[in-house]
Design goal:
mainly alpha, Glycosyltransferase, two-stranded antiparallel ribbon, 54% helix, 1% strand, globular, disordered N terminus
Length: 383
């Protein structure tokens, strides 16, 4: 694992993991200077005083990766609960890559990633129509997560044959997501979104967020994804935004809701909407500005509360980091202060009431992805 905080990149172009790491290895001082100049406020976020914080984050990440390694089964899967083996294995791959590990690394981490990817790529994991979520019973949540993982590792396989298989599986997965979006919805406001099954006629922002992120990652990786599909999904996310109006008609701060007709604030949905719009380039949208302001004053819920804590924390960390400036600084401190205290001695995080269905690998992977805002390796999370 790399331990250099220079990877706090604000590059707008999509760097590959290999290129970023190669640059650091060759000229870390030059890279740090360039990134400091490109960072908001002239690199105010890169300070010598952060060394101790960085050490704590890096140590926590190493413990988390060690835990995930310890949970790999003989078949290559990573899921101590055994409920959604394909989806959890894919999520664990993304989490480990997010802190700098690669499939080609000649390390125990690299070997674990290769075995995990081989498990996901087994023809038995994906239905002939491209669906990962049926046999895994993770439904469209699983479809989005596995598709995201395949998009992020495309071009980083161990050889050309594996990259060809990744591309084939990814193409079929994307096509299923697009077909599911095209299913006529019962309510016009729900057009452009997704829900639990490929043939669902209703939608929610939680499932939609995973599909939209995966489509955007696939497009960034060079896969053909119709602009119309992205645009429809973005419009759906915006319809989920709720804010009260001032007397002059200007929008106050607000949040994204579970469905377009909802008004209830849910941590995961609210943060998911903020992240997905930014990933799709809507950085200056009023909904993004309003939701980011809302989260500045938001009190993160307790682990054992009524919210999906770890799920929400993942979206919150990545979304506020995307926003940058005071939003990123605030979230970085919140994420660090909360998650470091909750990590178990074995490197894992234990789920609260709402997250318990996913299991320990699930919440540990989400926590590692939350902490990865200090690394900036994965292309999909680079602004």
């Amino acid at each position: 694992m790399r331990t250099l905080p220079q990877l706090k990149s604000r590059c707008r172009r999509r760097w590959s993991l290999a290129l970023a790491i190669a640059c650091l290895t060759a000229c870390p001082a030059a890279v740090q200077a360039a990134e400091k100049a490109a960072a908001p406020n002239g690199g105010a976020n890169i300070q010598a005083g952060e060394d101790e914080e960085w050490k704590q984050i890096d140590a926590a990440a190493k413990r988390a990766v060690a835990y995930l390694l310890s949970q790999q089964e003989d078949d290559g899967s990573i899921d101590e609960a055994g409920r959604h083996k394909t989806t959890m294995t894919a999520l664990a791959i993304v989490a480990m890559c997010s802190v700098g590990h690669k499939l080609t690394d000649q390390t125990k981490e690299g070997e674990t990633l290769r075995r995990a990817l081989a498990y996901v790529l087994d023809p038995e994991r994906q239905d002939p129509d491209g669906y990962f979520g049926r046999r895994d019973q993770a439904k469209m949540y699983g479809q989005g997560i596995v598709t995201l993982m395949l998009a992020e590792v495309l071009g980083m396989g161990v050889d050309e044959q594996q990259d060809r298989v990744i591309r084939e599986r990814l193409r079929k997965a994307i096509d299923l997501i697009l077909r599911a979006q095209a299913v006529p919805k019962k309510n016009k406001k729900e057009e452009g979104g997704w829900r639990y099954e490929p043939n669902s006629q209703d939608t929610d922002l939680s499932v939609t967020s995973w599909q939209l992120i995966s489509l955007r990652a696939a497009k960034n990786a060079g896969m053909e994804v119709p602009k119309e599909a992205i645009d429809k999904a973005v419009a759906y996310v915006k319809r989920c935004y709720f804010s009260r109006r001032e007397k002059d008609g200007a929008a106050e701060t607000g949040y994204f809701t579970y469905t377009p007709n909802d008004r209830t604030m849910r941590f995961g949905s609210a943060a998911g909407g903020l992240l997905t719009l930014q990933i799709c380039g809507e950085y200056d949208a009023p909904e993004v500005k309003g939701a980011a302001d809302y989260f500045l004053a938001y009190e993160i819920p307790e682990v054992e509360g009524k919210e999906y804590f770890y799920y929400g924390m993942y979206y919150y960390a990545q979304a506020m980091r995307q926003r940058g400036g005071k939003y990123a600084d605030h979230a970085r401190k919140v994420v660090r202060d909360i998650l470091l205290k909750l990590q178990e001695k074995d490197g894992s995080w234990h789920p609260g009431k709402k997250d318990s269905a996913g299991g320990i690998v699930y919440v540990t992977s989400l926590s590692l992805l939350s902490l990865s805002i200090h690394y900036y390796y994965l292309p999909i999370y680079q602004r």
